[in-house]
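I would like you to help me understand the sequence and structure tokens below and explain how sequence relates to structure.
___
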Amino acid sequence: MASTYRTIEELYRTTLVALSESPEAWKAFLESAGRNYKLPFPEQALVHAQRPDAKAVLELERWDALFGRRVKRGSVGIAVFGAPGTGRLRYYFDVSDTAPGRAARPLPLWAGGPEQEAAIVGALHESFGADARKGTIEAIAEAASAAVRENAESAVAAIGEARGGSGLERLEAPEAGDLLLELAAASAAYEAASRCGIEGGALITPRAADALPMFGTVRAMNALGCRTASAAAAVLRTIAPAMRERAPEASHRTFAPLAAAVHNPAKEPDERRGDGDGVQGGRWSSAADPGNGRGSGGEPGAVRADEGRIPEIEQARAAGGPAGAGGAGEAPGRDGSPRGGDGGRPGGPRGEEQGVGRSGEGGGSGSVGGEDGRGGGSGPRSGGDEGRVRLEKQRGQEKTKTSRREAGDKPASRRSEAKPPERGQLAFSFDDGANEYPEQLATPLGRLRGNIAAIEALVAVEGEGRPPDAAEREALARYVGWGGLADAFDEESGKWAHEKARLRQLLSDGEYAAARASTLTAFYTPQEIARPIWEAIRGMGLSGGRVLEPSCGTGAFFAAMPEALAGCRLVGVELDGLTARIARALHPSAEIIHGGFEHADLDDESFDVAVGNVPFGSYQVDDPRHRDEGLLVHDWFFARALDLVRPGGIVAFVTSKGTLDKKNPAARRRIAERAELVGAVRLPNTAFSPHAEVTADVVILQKRERAEVCEPEWAHTERVEAGIDVNSYFASHPDMVLGELAATTNAYGRADSECRPKPGTDLEEALREALGKMTARIPEWDAPESEPGDAIPADPDVRDWSYAESGGALYFRMGPLMHRQNPSKAAAERIGGMIPLRDCARRLITLEKDGAPDAEVEAERARLNALYDAYAAKHGILNSRANAAALKQDSSYPLLCALEILDGEGNFERKADMFSKRTIRPNAPVTHADDPQAALAASLSERGRVDLPYMARLTGMGENELAEALKGAIFRVPTATGEQPVWQPADEYLSGNVRAKLRIAELTAASDPSYIPNIEALRCAQPPDLGAAEISVRLGATWIPADDVREFVLHLLDPPYWVREQVAVRYSAATAQWRIEGKGRDGSNVRALSTYGTRRMSAYHIIEETLNLKDARVVDYVEDENGKKKPVLNKKETAVALAKQEAIKAAFKEWVFSDQARRERLVAAYNERFNAIRPREFDGSHLAFPGMNPEIELRPHQRNAVARILYGKNALLAHEVGAGKTFTMAAAAMELRRIGLCSKPLFVVPNHLTGQWASEWLRLYPAANLLVATKRDFERRNRRRFCARIASGDWDGVIMGHTQFEKIPVSVERQRAFIESQIAELSDGIAEIKAQHGERFSVKQMEITKKRLNVRLAKFADQTDKDDVLTFEELGVDRIFVDEAHYYKNLFFHTKMRNVSGIAQSEAMKSSDLFMKCRILDEQTGGRGTVFATGTPVSNSMAELYTMQRYLQYGELERLGFSHFDCWASTFGETVTALELAPEGTGYRQKTRFSRFYNLPELMSMFKQVADVQTADTLALPTPKVHLRNVAVQPSPVQRELVAGLAERAEAVRAGSVPAEKDNMLLITNDGRKIALDQRLADPALPDFEGSKVNACCENVLRIWRDGAEERLTQLVFCDLSTPKGDGSFNVYDDLRRKLVARGVPEGEVAFIHDTDTEAKKLALFGKVNAGAVRILMGSTQKMGAGTNVQRRLAAIHDLDCPWRPADLQQRLGRIERQGNMNAEVEAYRYVTEGTFDAYLYQLVEGKQRFIAQVMTSKSPVRTAADVDEAALSYAELKALATGNPLVKERMGLDVEVSRLRMLKADHLAQKYALEDKAAKDYPQRMASLSARLESLEADVAKARANPPPTKEAFSMEVRGTAFRERAAAGEAVLAARGEMTETGAMPLGSYRGFSLELTFDRMSAAFEMRIVGEAEHKCELGGDAAGAVTRLDNAIAKMGAEADECRARLEEARRQMEAARTEATKPFPHEGELKEKSARLAELDALLDVGKSGPEQLCDDAHEPERAEKKKEFER
């Protein structure tokens, strides 16, 4: 729907460009603008483009409100931009579109002409000082020039910015500004003259006409137009009063008939913003940009085409047209929003699309029937060439009311004569007749008051919890929504102040925002339409049953339902919350569902009738069920209603006429397949007056028994006699048309039709008669009756979600009721046997937990054994499939499963330990402590904090005594005065941000000495200050103040003094964006353009890119085959710019700490900000873990991790694989629950591990009450019930899979608030930046970000795959534990960096979903709600650390200013950008990667606030010792040839002789890996090489298989390449198995992981491996990595190939190096084929792993570390490996480096020669010119000093040969001389103070000037007053000294620049030595390697060659 706004924007652009191309077109525009001079320029341009003959324009409602004129039916509006920032359109109508109404008022007009010239000159002389003795045209020119030059600085500055791309670009900014002022003055004068009826053609001189095309861009023309319009308006506003005084008769005209000379309406009411003097005055300043949302003060730039602000077109409303528009004359909103809307909400059922109409309840003209371009859909419209809007007939026409009463003397129903809108402020009162319904509702004020009265009634009713009385019901019924009432929410308007204040009191912030957003919404369905429909339905046999009204609003149809149908069950669905509440109050017996119709939880075929007035519009509803049917919203309502009514049921809707009349029959066919058309009635377009004038239909359908394909008559349209296309039903049944069909045109000028009322017809009777002709019968429906007593009150002893028996019947408890169950006989027996077994197990658990006597426990254990044995004998084991099917719904089923120990294959092995011994450590409450230390441990264990009162009870000591005894072990935290003291243990208090804590303690101790020990302890805990040498700083680090960066820029580039003042460096924290202002001012600085800049990119731009972490990039634009310009990287210029960028970075590093004061300040700031954290060491040794299995003892690192989770904030368990994370998290959850720190933990684990997690948890805590999600639980039909179980149960833990967790939605309100909070922050940032003036770049960036957030908001609102009943917040979850959290690492965040390795470039929805839930828990728990666990927190790049911190340390990142990734990266990382061959071989690319990470100790200390890093070097886990065996094999001759062939392929790719899609470096790399694995992967026809690594592996596997036969030891074989495909093709898996089987290994002992396609099969396979039944298991890292627990008998693993990621190598090794392996020593084999890629790949991956180990260490990390991240071999690496010669790699590296250095030298020489030319020619010439000028100026200064200003007595001045002794006389003579000028050149004027005087006339500025001639010439304004002429001469002479000073400074600057140029020119190439050395080595290597002359392409070849497109292939890392 945004296309129309875009159309108007495009129209604006093309208009401005066209105006710049032709002086005649520009003149024509100026004449049009003169007629509408009060409009701002953008509106003038659009009016001219659409209606060049427009004479006077106003908005529709203002014609009525101001002049009592109504807009004629069928008029076409003129679209203009709405208020800045709203992105909406508004519409004007010309006076010719109007006619006088009954209350027409005079139009004050004025007209010029020759007879008025004296009045014009007099007015201009008085206001502008124009010479009264001159002609009118000269006076206008003078006034226009003065107006243009007033406050001209902003316009000059703006054109300096806007001249890019135009002809002005070749001018300096001041010259362009002067040209702008000259042309604007001439244009404004022409516009004013034309408006005054005076010929002004001479004003647009040839010079001006020639200058016009130079303004050939939108931005430049916008600047010119705004300046012109502003000046012309100033002149004409001065003239207008004089014209009105001379034409008093004008004030009595009524403008009928129209005069030939047409003028603008005059002054508007005070409520208008602006100067109040004209139409639309003040909407923009003269320099506004109409599209950018900046409003006044914005630069006159290009119309903004940012997609983020492309709005939906807002339809103007006719004064009497749409219901949403309210009463007559109601305007579109002040923001341009329309009146109207759907029947209850913007966007129909979902509220996402604006402006849908609803027949009779909103919408605009033609608001029903808007598809296919036929009837205009109301609200936003798309299409339309010029965005015009056609207006239909006025509402409230008097004849309607009269004809009604004449017809039958009946009341006028809901039609009344329209009243004009209230003109002034009314006292807030409702006793003035406003409640006379419905007439008062015809006006906006009446509707507003009616709404307020309804809300007051609703508040009273709800507050008192009672039904409404009669008066309140009447008030409630008058609620009509907020359509047409946008002014009620306009806080800038004083209109309706009392009502607005009351409304603000009544509504909450959320309700107020919702109301304000729904100003497109209205509710209105006439009872005379609803009543006949009900009578028809009743006549069809409805006497009871269920009735549905979708989109019910306040329940119009419920209100009209006959008393006879009172027994029906009514269900309404309403999206708007306030409306739904009113509907509930009005219809208490009805069920009103608040929500969108597509989300309503309604059962299919559950209703007898669906009735209502549906929304309509040209958009679709995202309903998965009907998503592919392409139904528009009103048609979708029929389809959805047909889902819900039973066969034979009735659907009766009032709908758009487009449902039946649209040309495309597809939707009707779909409906016809499921329902028969009972009949349809076309309503007249007055049916909904006065609220809307639309043509709508009543359509009644009856649902078929079953769908059938058919082609009924009513699926098609046909043309009737009137030439109108209508539905064939109406063509066959003309009696069903309640009016006369007439042809018309819609808003787009296309043919359409409407139904006009027949005079004298009563609508209700006519509709009743038409509906009475329909015949249908609703069949009887035997609804199944529920058995009485099928649900009974729940037994409190029965757990929720559990089976129970009562009275011999089986029940299932759900909440407060137990529901009777009727399972099969076998299932009933299984459930009946399970219940006593379950209850016995629970009793035994309770006894053990409570520490009951052994005898009692043993007796219960014996009963449990007996019950289990009996059950197993009859029904089999509890884990059997049949028992699972019968029992799985019981909440205790996981416990029952834990009673059995199964083997790896799922077979029963033995009973659980519970059957033979105690398995639960009893919870013995601590009642006594021997000493304070024991009391502290007990307090931490039982309370989770230091609880002195509790400790005092344990020890019997006083609290003060305890505190003294524990001095140093606990500390009192400084708190606000009067608060209870808070104590913390030392490990907590002396950790975290200890610098901030020390400051607080020092402040507190100043008034309370008891805190002095805190100070002493904190001082000891302070981290040592870092010195400057230890801190790495890069240019762009956001903690460096902008002033320091500016100082560096000035130091480095040394600009001239006048440039220095204009150079500013600004940083916007809201967008993390740096900007250098004034970077274009320094146009001749050698250091900026040569030393540190290039010809194409100045140093200022390079520094700005560097600050924003971007690589310098120079692009050229080439045209493709379609003529479109596309950017192509200029390799040469980019390489030069990159070199300069590196030089600037190096210079900054040298400079930043060079000054002692700056060094001390920055080092102190760094230490305070980043070196302030002391990580907390957690000690869990005191934890007792009651309830845990006493057979299991947690290791120290697990206990400490539990303590971290208990006492710390969010946590990340970064534990080595096999460190026992499962037990750690389960124990933490149980402890959190026990001590009350958590009520319901949720565990999110990999999908296939949910069952394993539950069994492990129950092994650790046998009494745990767990809820475990299965795959079926999250099928759509079961999901709601499972979520209800989560919410209603008291669970120790809920376990679900990753994908299941994602399906639990966050509430839309929370999502909206989450993103809107970010939008609000951006809005605040925008406001702040606007207040600072000049940082427009940040506003644009933030507007783009706002758009992106709004897109995300819309995406999050899609709840298709999520639970539609309970949201995440409603589950009661207050902790989430996420296992294998690295699966969520693709969390998108915005960065300005381009294409950086390791940064997620796309957003994974599951990650965004988790992030939002983490933020919710952060808010609820104070940052304690999330625990992550992963063995690989960093798998590929350090950037992943930031992702983890975003999840877990969001608040800390905000505190440190790291909300943006770029801020984090600028502090801790450094990117390096290299120009290199793309891996695909498709040309050069710029590749940016994190080369190093700096300041790692500070980063890791921050990270370790949440991260518990446990590596193998610290854990000393009982894992087997791994012996790493590298098996190297020699390649076969064929493999050698194949590898050599790879080198040839690489040469071809690099030379560009092969298409990229055919071959590239990624393919070559992958083929190289395959060749190294087995030559048959290159060609299956090749022989099997006996010495291959597959055969070597086979030998080792066979040997180990034989050696381990007795213990049945097992082995794993990893191979990521050549996996089995099952299609018979060759693969390594089948080959290895075939060889092993051939040599004696039983086929059943060799298995592939790929054969297990379900989790159950995979677990069964793992069991077989652990049991030794399968002894050789083969698989890929992906399928056999995490979660593969087969280590029991594992003796060896074999790596046949090398993975890309170090994490994969770790996962492979982690399968064997883990606890639970029966072998003390094991082996890991790695197979390498020499002479291939193998060895290098292993070296590469191990290098990555070493880097990660550097960081993820439990020890203190290094200060810097390198980052590695690549997925394909470089050309040099591939060549070296392919040839086996290391010299090749060296030669290739040198080749690239020498090429780069040669290119840099060539650029250096080019710069050197240019500088030498400047030093030899340019600068000397400039200096000579300036010296001569300075000499003349000094002579004139001396002359002026010798002839000082004369005294009054000594005054003497010669003018035109006459000497004058008085100043006034001399001035008069000078002014008189103007009339003597006959030539265009200078005229001698006389002499004064020793100088000659000349008179000149500047025609562009239309002003006379004096020229003072001495040795030099000096200009002086003449002015218009005689007394001031001589004074201005004296002032000009006095300024000669300043001129000389400025000239002297310029001469000195030129001299300095010449010296700088000479100095730079003599500098040698800085890399000369390196180039010589490397060139010599390259030549040496070329000789050794015999490299031919045809080497690879050089980087410096043809810099403009178009870059070959880089294919975007991702190779799995």
